[in-house]
Specification:
The complex is a heterodimer of chains A (317) and B (323). Chain A has 317 residues and is α/β, with parallel strands linked by helices. Chain A contains ten helices and seven strands. Chain A has a single domain, classed as 3-Layer(aba) Sandwich (Rossmann fold). In chain A, the strands form two sheets. In chain A, strands 1-2-3-7-6 form a five-stranded parallel beta sheet, sandwiched between helices. In chain A, β4 and β5 form a beta hairpin. Chain B contains twelve helices and 14 strands. Classes of the chains: A alpha/beta (317), B alpha/beta (323).
Chain lengths: 317, 323
C-alpha cells in the first residue's frame, strides 16, 4: 500500500472540496458571475484519475471542471482568478468557469458544450500516437454526454485507431434535471463500450483508490498501444446542477443516501483505520488547505481586471 | 511553365507540405487508398500511409479530433467530402476551435485546414451543392479561402497548411478539372491578398471561386462593347484585402460584386458594406450585387441555371451601371 499516494489523494480531494465551497460563497456574493457547476461530492474521480497520470498527459474536462483542473495540478490562484474574471486567471478572464484551459498542464479545457470535449480528447490521443510520445489522454464527461453523437463517433474512432485514451464517464445520475434512467435504457453506461468493441468497466466513483487503480490500468494499457477503455464511475453531486438552480427534482432520500457514502469521509476513516494518518495530522492538513484556498481567494480578489486594450488581441494567432 | 489541373495543384501542395513537415496529416472519408472522392489525395497514401487516415462517417468526431490534434502538436488537414456537410462538424470548428486562440491567448497554435469540395452548376441538388463561406466569415478566429485557379490553389493551400489558425479552404467542384499554369518550384500565395485577374478602368467587378470565370467571360464580352472591366479575384474572403478593393474603386467609381451563393448576409454583403464605409466619395453609382436567387439549389438544370448567376447576368449588371 502506497501511503504517499493515499495522502496525496486525500489532499487533492480536500483541495477540491474547499475550493468549491469558496467558489459557492463567492458566487452568492456576486463576485463570480455567469454560472458555476460545482464538483462537490465527486472529488474521488478527479483525484484518483489524475493521480494516475503524468504532467504531460492530456485531459479534457466539462462544464463541471474545477475538480479536474485542480487534480491535474492547476494553480489555485490562477483558477480562482479566472473564476473572478481577472487578468491573472489562466485565460486572462476571457473564459471563466466553463472554459479554463492551459496546455502547459495538458488541460485542453473545461467545456460548456456537453460532449464537445470528447472529440478533442480523441484528437489529442491521435496526436500522441502519431508523434509516438507515449502520452495518454483522459477524457472526462458525464452520463448525459454519453447520449451525444460525439460520444458515439469519438469512441468508435478511438477503437478503430487503437488510440491511447481513457474515457471516464462520471455518472452522477442527472443531466441538469433529468435522470439518466429516463434518457437511456442502459443502466450501466459502460455497457455502451461493446458497440465499439472496447473494454468497459463500471466502478464505485466515490472510492479514490479504486478510481486510481482502474485509470492506472487503462492508462498503462493505452501507453503500451493496446487502445482505449471506457470507465464508468458512479457518483453523485451534492449541489444543484449550477449554483442557483432549485434542485427540486432529486428525491430527498436519494440525496441523503449518497451523502452518507461521500468520498472524503469514507477515505478519512480508512486512512485512520490503516494508521496512514492520525486525526491530528488530518486536522493540520485541513487547515493548511483551507489556508491555501483563502490565499487563492485573496489573490483573485486583489488581482486586476483584464485591460480593454487587450480585448481584441489573440483572436487570430 | 507547365500546365496542370487545379486538382493536381492541390495534391502537389499537400505532398510537398507533408514531405517537409511530419506533423501534417490528412483525415477524412476515403482519403487513403481510394484517393478521395474527387481524387484530390490520389497517390498520397502510398507515400504517407501513417498520416493519411480513412475516417468513419463521423464529421463531428473526426473534425473535433483534428481540432484536438491541432492543439497538441499536429497540423491536420480535414477533407469533408462535400462542403455542405461541414455543418455537421461546425460545432467543433466554431465552438471549440475558433475560441481556442482567444482563450489560450496565443499560447497554442491551432493549425487546422478544413478542405471543402463545394458549389453548384452540377445538378447535385440541395445537399451537395451549397457553399458556406459566408457563415465562417462571421466567426472571429477563422480564415476563409477560395482559390479560383490552379496557381492560386497550390499556393494558397501551402499557405493554409503553414498557417497557425483554422483555415476553411473551399475548392469548387467544377474547378477540379480546370487547367492552368503552375510553376515547378517552391512558391506560396499569401492568405488575405486579392489578385487583379484583369486590369481595367471603367468598372470594378469583384468575385471569387468558380463564378470568377463567368466574370472573366463577361469582361471579354464587355470589352467588345468598349467597357473596360477590372476583375478582382478576392481569393481570401476572410480577412478581406480592403486595400486592393479600395484602390480599384478609386479608379473606376463603379462596382459589381459577383458571387455564386445567396445574397442575404453573405460575403457580398460584407464587401458592399466595407466599400460603402471606405469608398463612398469615390462611388458614381450604388453598389450592385449579382448572386444566387433565394432558393436552395434545385436539381433540374433549367432550374439550377435560373437560380445561379450566369455570364449574361454579369454582363447586364455591368452594362446597366455604365450606361
Amino acid at each position: 500500500m502506497n501511503e504517499e499516494l493515499y495522502k496525496d489523494l486525500l489532499k487533492t480531494m480536500l483541495k477540491i472540496r474547499y475550493f468549491e465551497q469558496a467558489a459557492k460563497k463567492l458566487y452568492a456574493e456576486g463576485l463570480i458571475l455567469g454560472s458555476i457547476h460545482l464538483y462537490t461530492g465527486e472529488e474521488a474521480i478527479a483525484a484518483g484519475a489524475c493521480a494516475a497520470l503524468c504532467k504531460d498527459d492530456f485531459i479534457t474536462s466539462t462544464h463541471r471542471g474545477h475538480g479536474h483542473i485542480i487534480a491535474k495540478g492547476g494553480d489555485l490562484n490562477k483558477i480562482m482568478s479566472e473564476l473572478l474574471g481577472k487578468a491573472t486567471g489562466y485565460n486572462g478572464g476571457r473564459g471563466g468557469s466553463m472554459h479554463i484551459a492551459t496546455t502547459d498542464l495538458g488541460i485542453l479545457g473545461a467545456n460548456g458544450i456537453v460532449g464537445a470535449g470528447i472529440p478533442l480528447a480523441t484528437g489529442a490521443a491521435l496526436s500522441a500516437k502519431l508523434r509516438k510520445s507515449g502520452q495518454v489522454t483522459v477524457c472526462f464527461f458525464g452520463d448525459g454526454a454519453s447520449n451525444q453523437g460525439t460520444f458515439h463517433e469519438s469512441l468508435n474512432i478511438a477503437s478503430v485507431f487503437s488510440l491511447p485514451v481513457v474515457y471516464i464517464c462520471e455518472n452522477n445520475l442527472y443531466g441538469v434535471g433529468t435522470c439518466i434512467l429516463n434518457t437511456s435504457k442502459c443502466i450501466n453506461i459502460s455497457e455502451r463500450s461493446k458497440s465499439y468493441a472496447m473494454e468497459g468497466v463500471t466502478i464505485d466513483g466515490n472510492d479514490p483508490v479504486i478510481v486510481y487503480s482502474e485509470v492506472k490500468k487503462a492508462a498503462d494499457k493505452a501507453r503500451k498501444g493496446n487502445g482505449p477503455t471506457l470507465i464508468e464511475a458512479k457518483t453523485y453531486r451534492w449541489n444543484s446542477h449550477f449554483e442557483g438552480e432549485p434542485d427540486n427534482y432529486r428525491p430527498a432520500e436519494e440525496v441523503k443516501a449518497w451523502k452518507k457514502k461521500e468520498p472524503i469521509q469514507r477515505f478519512e476513516n480508512l486512512l485512520i483505520d490503516k494508521n496512514i494518518m492520525t486525526k491530528e495530522g488530518m486536522e493540520i492538513l485541513h487547515s493548511e488547505i483551507k489556508k491555501d484556498i483563502d490565499i487563492a481567494v485573496k489573490f483573485a480578489k486583489e488581482s486586476p481586471d483584464p485591460l480593454t486594450e487587450d480585448a481584441l488581441k489573440f483572436v487570430i494567432n | 511553365m507547365r500546365t496542370i489541373t487545379y486538382k493536381k495543384a492541390l495534391t502537389e501542395a499537400m505532398d510537398e507540405e507533408m514531405e517537409k513537415d511530419s506533423r501534417v496529416l490528412i483525415a477524412g472519408l476515403d482519403v487513403g487508398k481510394y484517393g478521395g472522392s474527387f481524387g484530390v489525395t490520389e497517390g498520397l497514401y502510398g507515400k504517407y500511409p501513417d498520416r493519411i487516415l480513412d475516417m468513419p462517417i463521423s464529421e463531428a468526431g473526426y473534425t473535433g479530433a483534428a481540432v484536438g490534434a491541432a492543439m497538441t502538436g499536429m497540423r491536420p488537414i480535414v477533407e469533408i467530402q462535400v462542403s455542405d456537410w461541414v455543418t455537421i462538424a461546425s460545432d467543433q470548428i466554431v465552438n471549440n476551435g475558433a475560441n481556442m486562440p482567444y482563450l489560450l491567448m496565443g499560447k497554442t497554435a491551432l493549425p487546422l485546414v478544413v478542405r471543402l469540395p463545394s458549389g453548384g452548376y452540377l445538378s447535385y441538388a440541395c445537399q451537395h451543392s451549397h457553399s458556406w463561406e459566408s457563415w465562417f466569415c462571421f466567426v472571429p478566429g477563422i480564415k476563409v479561402v477560395l482559390p479560383a485557379t490552379p496557381y492560386d490553389a497550390k499556393g494558397l493551400l501551402k499557405s493554409a497548411i503553414r498557417d497557425d489558425n483554422i483555415v476553411i479552404f473551399l475548392e469548387h467542384k467544377k474547378l477540379y478539372s480546370m487547367t492552368g499554369q503552375v510553376p515547378e518550384g517552391e512558391y506560396t500565395v499569401p492568405i488575405g491578398k486579392a489578385d487583379i485577374k484583369k486590369e481595367g478602368k471603367d468598372i470594378t467587378i469583384i468575385s471569387y471561386s468558380y463564378v470568377l470565370h463567368k466574370v472573366l467571360e463577361a469582361a471579354e464580352i464587355l470589352s467588345g462593347s468598349g467597357i473596360s472591366a477590372e476583375v478582382i479575384d478576392l481569393r481570401t474572403v476572410k480577412p478581406l484585402d480592403e486595400e486592393t478593393i479600395i484602390n480599384s474603386i478609386k479608379k473606376t467609381g463603379k462596382v459589381v460584386i459577383v458571387q455564386e451563393v445567396w445574397r442575404n448576409c453573405s460575403v457580398s454583403s460584407e464587401v458592399a458594406a466595407v466599400i460603402s464605409e471606405k469608398c463612398f466619395d469615390y462611388l458614381d453609382h450604388p453598389i450592385v450585387r449579382v448572386t444566387s436567387k433565394e432558393a436552395p439549389n434545385p436539381y433540374a438544370p433549367v432550374l439550377e441555371n435560373y437560380i445561379l448567376p450566369q455570364t449574361q447576368d454579369i454582363v447586364k449588371a455591368a452594362r446597366d451601371m455604365v450606361r
